[in-house]
Specification:
alpha+beta, Single alpha-helices involved in coiled-coils or other helix-helix interfaces, Heat Shock Protein 90, 5-stranded mixed beta sheet, 12 helices, 5 strands, about 65% helix, about 10% strand, elongated
Length: about 400
Amino acid sequence: MTMSPQVPDSDRPPPARLIPDRWTWKEIGHLLANLPLTIVECVYAVVMIGVGVALSVTVIGLPLLAVALHGARLIGRFERSRARSMLGVRIDEPSPMVLARRETGFFPWLWSSVKDPVGWRAVLYSFVRLPWGVVTFGVTLVSMIALWPVLPFITRFLGNADQVMVRGLLSPSDELERRIAELEADRGVVVDTAAADLRRIERDLHDGAQARLVALAMGLGLAKEKLTADPDAAARMVDEAHGEVKIALQELRDLARGIHPAVLTDRGLDAALSAIASRCTVPVTVQVDLTERPAQAIEGIAYFTVSELLQNVSKHSAARSAAVEVWRTGNRLMLQVTDNGRGGARMDGGTGMAGLAERLGAVDGLFVLDSPAGGPTTVTAELPWRDRELPKKARTERLQRG
């Protein structure tokens, strides 16, 4: 759950005292303003929402209701700002209303607006606040006249109750509401990454193995023509073609390894990471402490993350050694790659760190870079575990229920 940010001490009300201080006067102003502001907000909610609901059977009813709920969102923003400045309470802003990537146009906007939970909670806040505004106005006014010695304590009590109401109805409802917008952005990262990978595979096939196979076919055609006229030349051409075949096969193996290596599928992360560590230009120690395997997609992301980090070690770190550690903590898969190189790596340094962070974030992972100048460099990555057998179990349960 997203927590409200820490309020600086200078913005937090001190304990109530017998002598009114500036926070007491702020609370008095807030409590006296509750009644007139709440009357305006409640009248807006009753008129706009009531008319919108009453006319919902007509073509203008739902659009009017949608506009009214957008206005209620603005009321909620104003009340959060007022509570922040007058009561010293900081509340996160709810997530903006978002449409799915493929949903555009008037009707998707209308439906998302009408079912907007933030707007409806702001409407409820306006209704609940009307009797509370009457109480706070009356109690505060009477206390300023007849109960002056205990006025700071009364206003602090009423202000704290006001804070509870604001937090309960105007703060983000739960983590899901905020995650909607985050996952919408993360889905775009996944789509863009998949498209980039497909373009890379197409380019590698076109410029590598495909071009080599075309040249091989032409060479074999020439060898066939010379087979009877010049057998020795034909034999040399066949030998050259044999060498080209071996190179093409190696390129195809490398390309397949870049898509999803067979050793990862067959033997898991320990063997796969040891294989890429053996190809690094610096000595790498690999330690994998896993008693079972995570989901295949998570294994793949972990593999390619370590692979790219070791490539950075080879190209940029000037390190003498490196280490890879993999372990499980709860329902998270942890990776750590360290090297004793010159350090100074940055997320925007052109080494692909930002891209790795985006890819991990798209699957609810974390990416932390620690690389002071002079080294060492430590990259820690965290991924959701997602048990490999979960989809199978889910399918079995569905079949049993069906």
